[in-house]
Amino acid sequence: MSENNPERVKGRTVDAPNSSDGGELSGPRWLTETPVLEANLPEDLQRLLGRLLGEEPVDTLDEWIEAVRRHTDGGPINTEQLCHASTPTPHWGELQGTRYHFQCFYDAVVLSALIDEPVDVRTESPRGWAVNATAVGTDALEVSPENAVFSFGVEKTVTPPDMDGPSPVDVYAAVCPYVRAFPHPDGYLRWADDVPAATVAMPLPGATDVAAALVESVSEEVTEV
C-alpha cells in the first residue's frame, strides 16, 4: 500500500505506509539480535524494569520473563492472566470464528501460543494504522505490513513495589500501554520520542519468541479462552 493510498480505520482516513519504506532497524532502541530474548536492553529500560520489580536492573527480555514468573508463583502465563477487554478494542484475536478483544494486541499472540492453534491478530498503531498478523502457535507470525515492528517499554515514573512485590495490575499498568505495533520502524521512532516511557522495539515476527517463553512448561491442555 503506497503513501497515496489511504486506509480506512474506524471511519477516519489515515495515510498507510508503504511496506518497503520506514527506516532501518539499527541503534540502541532496536533488538535485532537472534534470539531477541538474549539481547541486552537499553540501560534506562533495564533500570526501570528493575525498579518496577523492586530488584536489580533487568538486562534482557529473558531475565524479565523469569522475574515475572517469580511474581506469578513461578509458573507460565495462562488464559486467565491475559488482558481480556469487556468491550470492543482495536486489539483483537480471532479463533475459529470467535473474536476476543484485549487491552493489548500481544495477548492475542500469546493466546495462539497457549492453545497452539492459528489466531488472526489485528491491532492499530498509536496513529491508527492497521497491523494484521496470523500467529501460529509458537512457530510463526505472518505479518502485514511485512516490516512491522512492536515495542516494549515501561513508564518512566514507575515506583518500587511494597514488600510483597508488584501485583499483576501494577505490571500491566506500567508496561501494557507501551507494548504497541507499528507498520514500519519510523512509526515507532516518532512515537517513542513523545511517550513518557523507556522503550525498545523489534521486528514483529520476533513476538513469537517472547510468547513461547511466557507459556513454556504448560503441561495441561488449554481448551477455553
Word description of this protein:
It is a single chain. This protein is α+β, with helices and mostly antiparallel strands and 225 residues long. It has one domain: Bactericidal permeability-increasing protein, domain 1, CATH 3.15.10.60. Helices cover 25% and strands 22% of the residues. It has six helices and ten strands, in the order ββααββαββββαβαβα. The strands form three sheets. A five-stranded antiparallel β-sheet has the order 4-3-5-6-7, covered by helices on one side. A three-stranded antiparallel β-sheet has the order 9-8-10. A two-stranded antiparallel sheet has the order 1-2. Strand 5 and strand 6 (130-136) form a beta hairpin. Helix 3 (106-115) crosses helix 6. The longest helix has 11 residues, at 43-53. The N and C termini lie far apart (34 Å). Mean pLDDT is 82; it is low at 1-21 and 218-223.
Topology at a glance:
Elements (H helix, E strand, L loop, with lengths): L6 E3 L2 E3 L28 H11 L7 H10 L21 E4 L2 E4 L4 H10 L2 E7 L5 E7 L3 E5 L4 E7 L12 H8 L5 E2 L2 H8 L4 E7 L3 H9 L10
Antiparallel strand pairs: 1-2, 3-4, 3-5, 5-6, 6-7, 8-9, 8-10
Q: Can you give me a brief rundown of this structure?
A:
With 225 residues, the chain is of the alpha+beta class. It contains six helices and ten strands.
